[in-house]
Amino acid sequence: MSAISFKHLTKNYGSLVALNDVSLEIEEGEFFGLLGPNGAGKTTLISILAGLCRPTAGSVEVMGHDVQSDFRAARRLLGIVPQELVFDPFFTVRETLQFQSGYFGIKNNGEWIDEILHHLGLADKANKNMRALSGGMKRRVLVAQALVHRPPVIVLDEPTAGVDVELRQSLWKFISRLNQEGHTIVLTTHYLEEAQELCGRIAMLKKGEIVALDTTANLLARVNNSQTKDGDLEDVFMQIMSEGR
Amino acid sequence: MTQLRSSPFAYASGFKALFYKEVKRFWRVSFQTVAAPVLTAILYLMIFGHVLEDHVKVYGAISYTSFLIPGLVMMSLLQNSFANTSSSIIQSKITGNLIFVLLAPLSHLEFFMAYVLAAMVRGLVVGLGVFLATCWFTDISFQMPLWILVFAILSAGVLGALGLIAGIWAEKFDQLAAFQNFFIMPATMLSGVFYSIHTLPAIWQSISHFNPFFYMIDGFRYGFFGVSDISPWFSLMVVGTFFLVVALVAIRLLATGYKLRH
User: Sign of dihedral through CA atoms B62, B64, B69, B75?
Assistant: First the structure.
């Protein structure tokens, strides 16, 4: 069974086609990269997966559960780290995580919350109000919120945008560990070297359509066999995005 | 690290957590959300009660100050029930943290119940606060306590649901302020808080009958004095119908994801 299955997904905003008949299967246990320039449709795709946005046509399933008709099961299997740095200024870090557990119907989640706080370097911030945290710390809390219900599928929408090197490294170490433990990870990022290092398979989106879908190794082989010696994912990305201009 | 993959949780409804969060949100700033409206009501009572006590006659032997107290209690209850849902939703929408609720496996009914019940709690707490702070100024009776409870609870529900609709509809704080200042405030102030509609000219009496807030205050006041401008049963029917209408509209907006899920 696929972890995530996008089937003929189309999303229109008036005359703007944000996604055009996108079909994609992401297998369980994959570390999958979703790349594309701004406006390519990455966030729209994730928003539909998360139930934040409704498709014009097509459907999405998380481990066999439709995100619209079987939304409870689908959302329990999914942990989303949103792109925007958002937080509730009324509460502390611990309260934020307790409420998030509660929304998923989980009681007595203290032990697991302590463990997430420890692994994300937030243990000493647990009783601080969210307003008092730095941007990097708030980003860590967003990751923690996505994990409180122990989802087998984790989606990170540009999680390292604007964060320092130290946090990036600790975050990727943690996420890689989750992937090794069997979690499916989907990542969107503009830092192509991160995608090259972490992702086993990559899809590239352009103007709402998938223009490349392959393993990272095969994508890299494209440039190494043709134009550039020792090319990297950025070369592949630039080549694919410039095609058909 | 503990294995994440196989979840050991037996899932319950997320309603309770969302309800508790909403109550905690207003309680955390209770100086602003509870104490301030109580003080405002005391000022109304001191000023209007003092100025009008000997000039306005209502319901025969009942003093104007006694008449005013249930009106002020209900006005505060209505305005604060509305403020709770509307401010919570618009703040969460504008700051973006509503996403945490939208990502959770909560149905639109659970969402509705949690927000509206929390708004009712705030409205009732403020109403009780206003009553406890003002009842020292005069003698007040409780002729029909059940009517007091019924109208307080139902009216808080109506305004909680209306606040939810306004919060979902508004995209900016000034749109919400317009809803509050040009609809909720006039409708509550002109609903008979400060007067009995029998003291109004005929045309204004007729117009007052089209204001659903009038029935909330009139029915509520009946519980205190056993006297009202119109039958409490009729008021109950109007308020009950109004609640059903606004609740259905709010639930429909949530079910369709209007301005929440694009």
Answer: positive
Full residue range of the structural domain in which residue B138 is found = 30-256
Single-letter amino acid, residue B216: M
Helix (H) or strand (E) holding B164: helix B145-169
Give yes or no for a contact between B130 and B35, defined as CB atoms under 8 angstroms apart.
no
Chain B residues in contact with A50 by the CB 8 A cut-off are 102-103
Domain count, chain B: 1
Q: For residue A129, what is the DSSP state?
A: B
The model's pLDDT over B158-204, given as tens digits with 9 standing for 90+, comes to: 999 999 999 999 999 999 999 989 998 888 888 888 888 877 888 88
Across the A/B interface, how many CB contacts are shorter than 8 Å? 118
Q: Which residues pair with A201 in a beta bridge?
A: A32, A215
List the single best residue of A63, A65, A90, A138 to mutate versus B (max B Cβ within 10 A).
A90
Nearest alpha-carbon partner for B142 in B85, B66, B201? B66
Q: Helix B64-95 and helix B15-28: axis angle, to 10°?
A: 110
Is B141 a domain residue?
A: yes
